[in-house]
Amino acid sequence: MTDVANVNAAPTTSDSPQPAGPIEHARVAVTGGSGFVGRHVVNELVARGHHPVCLVRDRSVFVDQMRRLPADRYDAIGGSLFDRDAFATTVKDCAAVIHIVGIIQERPLKGQTFERIHVEGTKRALEAAKAAGVKRFIHMSALGSRLNAPAEYHRTKWVAECAVRDSGLDYTIFRPSIIHGPDGEFMQMMRTFVCDAMVTSFGFLPAPFPVIPYFGKGDKKLQPVDVRDVATCFVGALARPETIGKSFDLGGPEALTWKQLYQTCKDLIPGAKQWKPIVGMPVWKAKFLAKTVMKLPVLPMALRFNEGQVAMSQEDSICDTRPAEAAFGITMRDFRTELRNYAALIE
C-alpha cells in the first residue's frame, strides 16, 4: 500500500503560512464509517480515488457492509473514539480526517451520551489529527445547532463545532437537515410508520400500531437532504481549499411540514396502510411519554423518542441551499422524486 503524504505540509521558503492545496487521491481517516452517512462517504471517497481508513467498532460488520468494494481500496481499524492507539493507527499517514460520528438516542449504560460522543469524541478526533500532523478536518454537525437550543443534541453539537473552530486545523463544517436514503434509519422508521399495523413490544410481544404520529401541530418544516448529496459535499471539500474555515447548511430543495412529509411517505412507499390516520400528539403528552414509557423497552429502539426529539420537532429545520450548491457545483436532489425512485428498496 502506497502512503500518501499530507499535501498541506508542502515545503516552504519562508516563515509565512502557505495556503492549503486540494487533497486528491489520498489516505483519508473516517470516523463513523459504518453508519448510514459514513457508508456513503466511504463509497464516495473510493469513487474519487481516495483511500479511506475507517475507525469502526466492529471490523467484521464493517467489512461485510463494504463487501461490494475491493478489499484493497480501504482499511478498517477496529476501535472506538476513546481508543487512542486505534485512533493513532487510523490517522497515521492520512491527509485529512472526516469526522461523522454522532448519536440521536443516548444509551448511558453503554457510555453513549451526547456529551461523551459529540463533545469528547470530537475532541479526541481533533487531538488524534494534531498528533499525526493532519491539518485538514471535515466535521459533521447538524442544522439547528446553537448555544441555547432546546435539545441537548443540538447544544452538544454546537460545543463540538466550537472545538473544531478553535482547533487551529483547516476545517470545514457541515450542518445537514434530516438525511434520507433507502438504507437510512429515518426512512426505515417512515416505512414502519406508514406500512406496519403491528410492532414488537418488549422485544417479543406484538403490539398494535394503528396511527402515524407527529408531535404538536405538525406544522414545523424540514428539508430532507439526500445522503448522496451529503457525501458529495463532504468528499468534495477535500478538493476545495476555498471551503476551509467555512460552515455549510445542507438541505433539500423543498421545505415540508411533518404532516406533509408523512403524507408523502404514505403516498409513495409501497405497502403503506392507507387507512392509518396521521394523528397529532400534544407536546406535553409526548414529553411525558419520553420521560417515562420511552425509557422502557416497550417499543423497538428505532421507534422510541426522547424529550430532545420532541423539542426539535417544534422548530423548523430549514436553510438556504444556495451557498452549498454554489460551493460544490451541485443541485440538491428533490425528496419526492428520489423517494419515488427508491421507495421499494427501503429495508
Tell me what you see in this structure.
The structure is a single chain. The protein is of the alpha/beta class and 347 residues long. It folds into two domains: 27-179 and 225-251 and 317-332, Rossmann fold; 185-219 and 256-312, no CATH class. 35% of the residues lie in helices and 17% in strands. It has helices spanning 36-47, 59-65, 84-91, 114-131, 152-165, 185-195, 227-236, 258-268, 283-291, 307-312, 322-328, 335-342, and strands at 27-31, 51-56, 75-78, 96-99, 136-140, 170-176, 179-180, 198-201, 205-208, 212-215, 221-222, 225-226, 246-250, 256-257, 278-281. The strands form five sheets. Strands 3-2-1-4-5-6-13 form a seven-stranded parallel β-sheet, with helices on both faces. A two-stranded parallel sheet has the order 7-12. β2 (51-56), α2 and β3 form a beta-alpha-beta unit. α1 (36-47) crosses α7 (227-236), α3 (84-91) crosses α4 and α4 (114-131) runs parallel beside α5 (152-165). Mean pLDDT is 92; it is low at 1-18.
